[in-house]
Records
---
Amino acid sequence: MEASVMFDRTQYANVFKPVEQAETLPAWCYTSPDYYRAEVENMFMKVWNFFGHVDQVPNPGDYMTVTFAGVPLIIARGGDKVIRAFANTCRHRGAPVAQGEGNCSAFVCPYHSWTYGLDGTLRGCPGMEKTEDFRKEDNGLIELPLEVFGNFIFINFDENAEPLIDYLGDFPEIMGSYKLDNLRLTRKVTHDVACNWKVHIENAMEEYHLPTVHKATLDLKDMDHSSAPTSENWTDIREHHDEHTRALLMEDLAHELPHIPGLEGRAASGTNYVSLNPSTMLGMTLDCVWYLELQHNGPDHTRVIAGSCFPEETIARPDFEEKAQYYYKRWDKSLGEDNDIAAIQQQGLRSPFVRPGRLSHLEPLIPDLAQWWVTRTVPEN
Ligand code: FES
Ligand SMILES: [Fe+2]
C-alpha cells in the first residue's frame, strides 16, 4: 500500500468508533514493513517498553541481550546491584559487545577488544593512545532510561521520557493489591511466532475466541460465561475481567495454590487481563500473575515470552514445584493454541482480498487498542 494512503489518518475513521460500529485495522497495519517502521519511530521509540522481570538478572554481573524494534540492547545488573540498559553497540565501530545472556564482570567487544564495565564505562581500548582528543569518559556505552515497577523492567528509547510512574497512570492504584513487589519469576518460556505483534496482543485482550480456540483446553465451567466478560477502560489501562473463584487449572483443582493475600475489588473476584499499552499483557489472577512480553523486529514475526510469577510465601511451600507444574501445563497448552491461531490469522492477513472487518460486542478492546496505536503511529493530517 502506498504511503500516501497508509499515513492518511482519514483512512482509519472507522477504527475510531464504538465496537458496534467499528471496523478492524486495515491489513497493511499487520503486514507492511513501512507501517511497522512508522510504529517503531513514532510509538515504540517514545513509550515505556516492557522487558520482563528483574529476576531474569538476579545477581551482580548478570546480563541479557535483546533486539527490540531493530535495536540491540543489553540489560545488566551492575556490581552496585542496579539494573541498567545499554545500546549493545560498541563506541568504536559499532559491533555488539555482548551476546546471549550470562554473568560477566565486563563486556569485551569481539572486534578490537574495547572493554566496558557493567555500568557502561569504557575501561580499556588498546591502541588508542595516539588518537587525538579521545577521552574514555566520552566513549562509554550509550545508556537508555530504565525503570522498574512491581519488579518489572521497562525501557524507554527517549531520553526525555516522562517518568514511568506517570506513564503507568492508574495501573499502580487499581492493581495495587496484587503487591507485585512480592512476586518472583518462577518460569519463562519463549516462542517465535510468524505473526504481527498486534495480532498476538489483540488475541490476549479478547475472550470471543475462547470457546473456539481453547474449547479442548480450558476448563471454563467455573467461570460465569452466562454474561460476557466485562471490560473496563480506566483512564490509562485497559482490562477485561472474568469472574471466578478457583484457580485457572485444566485439571484437578486439588493442585490449586493459595490465593495472593489481601486482594481487593476486581482483583479478588477473578482474573484481570490487563493491557500495558502498546504491547504487553499481564494476566493477574487469584493466585499468581503471568505476562506476555512481545519482542519484534519486523511486521510478521513476534518473539512471545511468557513469564509466570507467584508470591514468595507460595514459592516457599514444599508442594510448590509439584503444583506449579499444573499451572505451567495450562499456560503452555493455551499459549500454544494462541500462537497457532495467530500464525494462521497472519497468513490470512497477507491476502489482497482482506478487508477491514466488523466486530462483535464480545471484543470491545479490539477497536480501543487500535485507536491507541493509530493515534501514536499515524499523525493527524
Ligand atoms: S568495533 Fe568494538 S572494538 Fe572495534
Ligand atoms: Fe487465547
---
Amino acid sequence: MEWKAIKPYHLFQHQSSWYVINVEGMFANTINEAAARMLEVINAEPVTQPEPLREELRKLGLLAEGRGQIQTDKKGLKKEPFPVISMCLFLTQSCNLKCVYCYGDGGGYGTGGSMEEKTALQAVNWLLEQAGKIKKLHIGFFGGEPFINFPLMKAVVEHAEKKVLEMGKKIDFHTTTNATLLNDERIAFIKEHQIATVISFDGPKEIQDAQRPYANGEGSYDTTVPKIKKLLAAVPETPGHAVIVGNTEPELVKEALQEIGFSEVSIVPASQSLFAGESDRTKKARTQRILQALEKEAENWISLTKSRNSEALKILKARNGLYQGLMALLHNTKKRYACGAGLSSAAVSCAGDIYLCHRFVGRDEYKLGNVFERDLNREEYQKSPVTGSGVCVACFAKYYCAGGCKHDNVGSSGSVAIPSEDMCRLRCRELELAAVIACRLDTEDKKFLIEREIFTPKPCPLDF
Ligand code: SF4
Ligand code: SF4
C-alpha cells in the first residue's frame, strides 16, 4: 500500500455538493467550492496555518477545537498496557451444527476437544489476576456450541461468583448459542445468573436450514424454534443475531426473526476472512455490490428520516452499514483500536492457551500465553494502528475504522496490521456516506431520531 501524506481535511464531492471531514475533530460539514479550494491549500501545507486563515476556518465551523474525543471504555481506559478484563472461554471446541460460514473449522478450531474443570477454574483465577485493580470483569462462554459442556459452564459461574464476592469485584457472563441444546434447566440457569445470551439464528426456514444444518446435513430450523420461543418467554429481551451470506435481503431475515419473537435483532454479513480464497475479480465484484448497497442505504437514511418512518429506520440501523460511522461523526468519537483483541480481552482455548481473540484460537502464531503460566506476550498488539508508522496513520477514516478486524486482515494479507484494499475502500466510503447523511439531516431530523431511540444522544463530557 502506498504511503500517503497526513491531511487534516478529507474533501470529497457527492451528487455535485462538496463535503469535508475534519479528521482530528471527527465531524463533517458541507462547504462551497471556494472553501474546498482553501482547504486543499491547507492540506498541501498542513503544519503552518496563519491566524487570519484560522479565523476564517473558525467562522466556517471547520476547526477541530474542542471536538474529537478519543473513545474510552466504561472504565475510561486509554493507555496501554491494558489489563485483561474480558475473557472468552472455549468450554468446548466441538459443535453440533456445521454452519457454511464457520471460520472455526466446524467449531473444532483445529484441535477440537473439551475444556477440563481445572483449566476452566485456573482461567478464572488468571483473569482475576490480570485485571489488577479493575473491579468489573466479563466472561464469555464460547465454543463450538458452549451448551455442549453445560456442567462446566455451571462450575465456572459458581467459582467466579464466589471469587469476586471474596475480592470485592463484580462479574457478568455472556454467551452466544445456536439454541439447539436449550432446555428448561438451562433456561432457568441463564435467567438466574443473568447470562446475557445471544441466539445465533439466520432467519427464514430455507435460509437457516441451508446455512446452519446439523452435522448429518439435516436442517435445524424446526427443532430449534420451539426452544428459542421458550427462552424468549423466560428472558424476552434476548437478542437474535443473523449472518447473511450472498444477496439475502436483510429485511427478510429481520422479519423472520421478529416472527419467532425476537424484539432485538442484529444482522451482519459473513466475515471477510471467509472469502480469502476468492479470485481478485470475485472480490472486486463483491465489494462493488456492497458499495452500491451503501449508496442506496445513505439515500434511505435521508428519505426515511424526512418522511419520519421510524420502523424502516430501525431496520436500517440493525443492518449496521452506515450507523456506526454516523454515530462517530455526530458524537465526534475517535477510536484508537478496532476491538479489544490483544488488549483488554483475550480468548482461552480448551487447553488453556491464550489467544488474541476467539477467531484466532488454534492458530499458534497468535498464541499469547497459557493460563498456567505468568508470561503474556502481547506487546506488539498494544500499539494503536492510528499512530506510529503503519498504513492507517494517514487514512482519513482511521478514527472510525482503527485498522479493521485483525482476523480479517490476516485472512487477506497474512498480517494483523495490513488491511485489504477492498476493506479499506469499504470503510472509507462508509465514512464518506455517513458524513453526507450527517450533513443532510437538520436539527429536527436528529431530534426525531433521538426521540425514537434510533440515534443515541451525544454523551455529556462531564459524565463519568
Ligand atoms: S484499515 Fe481502516 S484505518 Fe487503516 S487504512 Fe484501511 S480504512 Fe484506513
Ligand atoms: S480481531 Fe476481529 S474477530 Fe477478533 S475481536 Fe477483533 S474484530 Fe472481533
